[in-house]
Amino acid sequence: MTFRQDDNRCERPVRIHFGYMGGIELMKITETPTTRPAALPSRKPAVASASYVLSSDLGVAVPNDSAMFMGIPEPELTPKVRNAIVVLTQEVENLRGEVERVNSHLAQVERLADEDALVPVRNRRAFMREMSRVVSYNERYNVVSSLIYFDLNNFKEINDKYGHAVGDVTLLHAANSLINNLRASDLLGRLGGDEFGVILERTNAEQALLKGRDLARAIQATPVEYEDFKLTITASYGVTMFKLGESVQDTINAADRAMFERKKALKFMKTVRS
User: Fold this and answer.
1) Which CATH number fits domain 124-273: 3.40.605.10, 1.10.472.10, 3.30.70.270, 3.40.50.720?
2) Cα 31 from Cα 53, distance rounded (Å)
3) Alpha-carbon distance 62 to 196, whole Å?
4) Coil, helix or strand for 168?
5) How far apart are CA 56 and CA 166, in angstroms?
6) Which residues of 59-91 are buried (b: 16+ CB within 10 A; e: fewer)?
């Protein structure tokens, strides 16, 4: 890399060399002479007694009477070379700041891409990706995990009777009820409409059924509040375990069928009692 300057810039080319010393990357900046220079004396390592001054431009430590700075011997550390160091340091800092801003923006975009548009949980795509990860983990470490599939009862009637605004509040209420009663290791997602999924890692079917019951009770425990009225909602659930060789979609379908059978059985029991 070569710089040329006129007036306030270098009249002679400045060359930048990169290398490594003891595993540390070093940068060397030298002026290219117009004539072949005499052989330089052998260079000695930097000494600990070197003193430094602080550049007023960037706060860069530049040697005052040191033997070597950034691999550059003191005789070669001319004012022009010092200025080049300051310019390059500024460029490095600018690039570092830009990389940090880009990384922060990418993280935000990824988070928004995985989050449901209505409630603060994973969307279906992100949830299914987590399911695939759990399948791989189960197979690798020979552990069991379960899926709970939730469906809000009479949600269509709520939308039709009270409007979509109340329906949205109902979904948010259900999501928050689930979030507040899950472990840090449990994974929650909205699968679509009024359907939610919960992944319970290292949990068998019996344990998942008990957890599903507790979560359904949590949804029903507090009413949905909207303007001047309250509405109690209920949820049905089904449970299935992740099975070796079964696809993610097949696991969701199995939990959905279990939920439907459970809902049908509860309706039959209510009919008999009435």
Assistant:
1) 3.30.70.270
2) 22
3) 61
4) helix
5) 62
6) ebebbeebbbbbbbbeeebeebbbbbbbebbee
User: Can you give 37-102 as a three-state secondary structure string?
Assistant: CCCCCCCCCCCCCCCEEECCCCCCEEECCCCEECCEEHHHCCHHHHHHHHHHHHHHHHHHHHHHHH
Give the model confidence (pLDDT) of 203-247 as tens digits.
999 999 999 999 999 999 999 999 988 999 999 999 999 999 999
Cβ burial 202-233 (10 Å sphere, 16+ → b, else e) = ebeeeebbebbeebbebbeeeebebeeeeeeb
Q: What is the pLDDT of residues 117-149, one digit of tens each?
A: 999 999 999 999 999 999 999 999 999 999 999
Domain(s) of CATH 3.30.70.270: residues in the chain: 124-273
Amino acid at 58: L
- Per DSSP, the three-state class of 210 is helix
> CA separation (Å) from 221 to 95, 121, 214, 243, 262?
53, 21, 10, 33, 20
Give the dihedral sign, CA 69/70/75/76.
negative
Q: Is the pTM of this model over 0.85?
A: no
Please name the residues in contact with 269: beta carbons below 8 A apart, sequence gap of 6 or more: none
Backbone angles phi, psi at 208, to 5 degrees: -65, -35
Q: Name the nearest CA neighbour of 193 among 235, 240, 241.
A: 235
Listed residue (190, 196, 193, 103) closest to 148, CA to CA:
196
Which of 189, 184, 195, 198 lies closest to 146 in space, CA to CA? 198
Length of the chain as a residue count: 274
> Which tokens go with 199?
């992944």
